[in-house]
């Protein structure tokens, strides 16, 4: 918490162009939403932390909801890119690619001292109090990430790293169910052990 | 959401004794905290929903934090009881007992139309913004539930339902990581399919 407060309290350099302003808003939104959630993050505090006036904000976003959805979309694209980088890397076997993704994602969580977790998992927990549009956006994000893992598992099957009868779609779902559970526990415990524990179980049992 | 609003809007019978008042507070706290989280639940709204004046509240609890911790303790005990009921039931094999617990827990989630999820998982997501005392209470709750699953898995090993080399402590951790992930996804999708998907994967892979 002290790390979080310290970061928020630090005055940021005021962005000097329109692109920079939108970028600063999205970056700050990501920081606030992953750490405090959508409902607990006040727009005033976000804007104050990056010294952007409300008028500028409404130039880019119609509402806090619109802003939250834009932050979520940015996060989805960031992880699609990260997933593609690893899961399409043919210099590794499909199972190694999955392992590499998990390692990369774990590094990302450690980099922020377990303060952030996963924006999608965090928003998912707030679902009862979020504006209705978020549900579909969160579902679509999971589907997109899941599809990428599924394609990798299909390759694993073709290369006989996993059995011919494995239901790759079901396995990809289980991967994201467990991985998000592990991210949440890692954030609670300030330790990457849960990510390692779930990752090891999933991959080992896949290859038996 | 409409179900949630309807419930909150409904005036409740005012409790007529001290025990009833405390009980009504804990029940209502559970409803609010599991649906909206600790930070988004206002004490005023909770008290209004059960028509209890603030003075009475402070007779039982020193603060909203103290109240939240009492609600969490009540929830922990409720699930310890549910776990014991199934996992100590020697009329079933250890693996069947685990399956029975998952079935029971799934029914509980369906009963509230996926609006509640798991209080512990919900609070875990709020960890960055919760008062410091919550962390240890959440960690202790998981440890208590995990220990019960571990004891059941030790019995499964003794009865040769799972391999002699299985690390039952690690497996119990993975169970709770994945199960909480599944509860969260079930709440998002308003479907118990994620619980079924994770449960099936976990139990099948355990017995190979």
Topology:
Two copies of one chain form a homodimer.
Chain A: H1 2-9, H2 18-36, H3 43-49, H4 54-60, H5 64-87, H6 94-111, H7 119-125, H8 133-158, H9 168-189, H10 193-206
Helix pairs in contact in A: 2-5, 2-7, 5-6, 5-8, 6-8, 8-9, 9-10
What do these coordinates show?
Chain A has 208 residues and is mostly helical. Chain A is 73% helix and 0% strand. The first copy, chain A, has 10 helices and no strands. Chain A has helices spanning 2-9, 18-36, 43-49, 54-60, 64-87, 94-111, 119-125, 133-158, 168-189, 193-206. In chain A, helix 2 packs across helix 5, helix 2 (18-36) packs across helix 7 and helix 5 runs parallel beside helix 8. The longest helix of chain A has 26 residues, at 133-158. Chain A is elongated. The N and C termini of chain A lie far apart (42 Å). Chain A binds chain B through residues 1, 4, 35-37, 39-40, 115, 117, 121-122, 124-129, 132, 135, 138-139, 142, 170-171, 173-174, 176-182, 184-185, 187-189, 194, 197-198, 201, 205, 208, and chain B through 1, 4, 35-37, 39-40, 115, 117, 121-122, 124-129, 132, 135, 138-139, 142, 170-171, 173-174, 176-182, 184-185, 187-189, 194, 197-198, 201, 205, 208.
End-to-end Cα distance of chain A, whole Å, is 42 Å
Radius of gyration of chain A over all CA atoms, rounded:
19 Å
Q: How many extended strands of chain A?
A: 0
The biggest chain-chain interface is: A-B, 44 and 44 residues
Strand content of chain A: under 5%
Described by strand count, sense and barrel closure, the largest sheet of chain A is:
none
Query: Multimeric state of these chains?
Result: homodimer
Look at the structure and give the mean pLDDT of chain A. Answer: 90
H-E string of chain A: HHHHHHHHHH
User: Roughly what percent helix of chain A?
Assistant: over 70%
- Helical segment tally of chain A? 10
Name the structural class of chain A.
mainly alpha
Gross morphology of chain A is elongated
Give the low-confidence spans of chain A: 1-13
């Amino acid at each position: 918490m002290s790390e979080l407060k310290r970061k928020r309290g630090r005055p940021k350099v005021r962005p000097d162009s329109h692109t920079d302003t939108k970028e600063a808003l999205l970056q700050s939104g990501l920081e606030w939403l992953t750490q405090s959630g959508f409902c607990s993050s006040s727009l005033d505090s976000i804007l104050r932390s990056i010294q952007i006036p409300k008028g500028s904000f409404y130039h880019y976003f119609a509402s806090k909801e619109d802003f939250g959805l834009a932050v979520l979309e940015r996060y989805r694209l960031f992880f699609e890119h990260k997933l593609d980088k690893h899961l399409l890397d043919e210099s590794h076997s499909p199972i190694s690619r999955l392992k590499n993704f998990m390692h990369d994602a774990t590094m990302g969580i450690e980099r922020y001292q377990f303060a952030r977790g996963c924006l999608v998992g965090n928003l998912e927990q707030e679902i009862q109090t979020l504006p209705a549009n978020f549900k579909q956006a969160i579902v679509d994000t999971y589907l997109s990430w899941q599809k990428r893992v599924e394609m990798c598992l299909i390759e694993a099957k073709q290369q006989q790293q996993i059995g011919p009868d494995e239901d790759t779609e079901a396995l990809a779902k289980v991967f994201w169910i467990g991985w998000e559970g592990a991210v949440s526990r890692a954030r609670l415990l300030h330790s990457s052990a849960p990510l390692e524990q779930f990752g090891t179980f999933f991959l080992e049992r896949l290859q038996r």
